[in-house]
Amino acid sequence: MSTTLGDPKENRGPPGSLLLKDIITLRPGQSAREVVLKKIQELSDSDHRDPFMVTDLGVLASRHQAFCQALPRVSPFYAVKCNSSPWVLRVLATLGTGFDCASQVELEQVLGLGVAPSRIIYAHPCKPVSSIRYAACLGVQLLTFDSEEELTKVAQHHPGARLVLRLWTEDSKSICPLSTKFGARLEMCEHLLQSAQDLGLAVVGVSFHVGSGCQTPHDFTKAITDCHRVFEMGRGVGHDMSLLDIGGGFPGMEGSEPEFEEMARAINAALAQDFPEGTGVEVIAEPGSFYAASVCMAAVNIIAKKAVLEPGGHQKLLYYLNEGHYGSFRHVIRDLVPRMPIVVKKLSSKLPLFPCTLYGPTCDAMDKLFKEEVLLPELDVGDWLIFPSMGAYSSVMSSTFNGFLPASIYYTIGPELRSLLEAAP
Ligand SMILES: *Cc1c(COP(=O)(O)O)cnc(C)c1O
Fold first, then answer.
1. Rounded distance, CA 213 to CA 416, Å?
2. pTM of the complete model beyond 0.90
3. Ligand 1 atom closest to residue 212's alpha carbon, by position in its atom list
4. Which of 20, 260, 323, 392 could pair with 293 in a Cys bridge, judged by C-beta atoms 3.0 to 4.6 Å apart?
């Protein structure tokens, strides 16, 4: 068992190329945070203070446990787009989750891990014909739809599909609303269910997504009640309705546990009322952020700095970091409250704080981490900042714009989970 950090280039190969031996096994009592600090120390002895991330696979396993505990009737189908790292997917496949895929490459990635097609939902309501055919060939049967045009394509290219109608939901209070793009209005559902029946297609269930970063449990309960109505419509038209999919939107940042617990209680109550146990309805969800957000930390270096004097003599600081909006921070700009980085350098707590703008490394002025300024002490070029909860919609959105390469990713794992992976087929 080695705790050396290996060559970051190894982490940049094709998906799945990283071997279990390259994953850092944590000693008893050792945390991923210590691994980050050790790596920072190693890099600080050289000129290469490149940004990096550390993904703690043990945290992923505990998120799975927390999800299943809070929502015992709901089977999670992890949303691959949130963090599609081969190791994240491999751990979840071993733990037995299902998967929500939204493209052919995501389907290939999950099927390539040996996951049974029955544990996959192809949850994009607007699919290219070629990908519908691919799903049909590989035996992925659960497909979502929200329009008549999609039904026409499915009837022609995947007539054996088990369709799930994606319902429109109120999500204006979510951080990333989705309902302008996806979801059929309740008034349209009966017509769509009838069209499917006329085309000889089987609709088996209803899904919704309250928007990522849902702010109110009421959005879930309202949507579950609407789904109940669509179940009745579907049965009225002759469909065998048996699957309820409550989507994603569960909060994932560290510290959001109280909100999640509250949401879970509201969901359990709504399920008990509208879909009581014993009525033969299987309930699934498509959590992304809830699983992935807190598994990853990003370590970023200050590569340049400017002090500016505001009118009135107030000092502001501009920090230029080697990772930014076009790297793993693209999603962070949507945070309602800027997340506070951890300053690695030991500083007196009495130091004054300054309003600081955190810029990314590219030549684009839009390339900053947060819309607002954050309060930080005066730091120096070469200093490190650590951002926790960076596992969701981060590396998956990294680009190489302006020639800045995506941050290297290291993985840590505890001995028990490691043994479980070693024993997996
Ligand atoms: C993005 C997405 C998810 C995951 O959403 P989170 O808010 O990250 O949990 C689930 N289902 C669908 C259809 C999505 O588009």
1. 32
2. yes
3. 7
4. 392
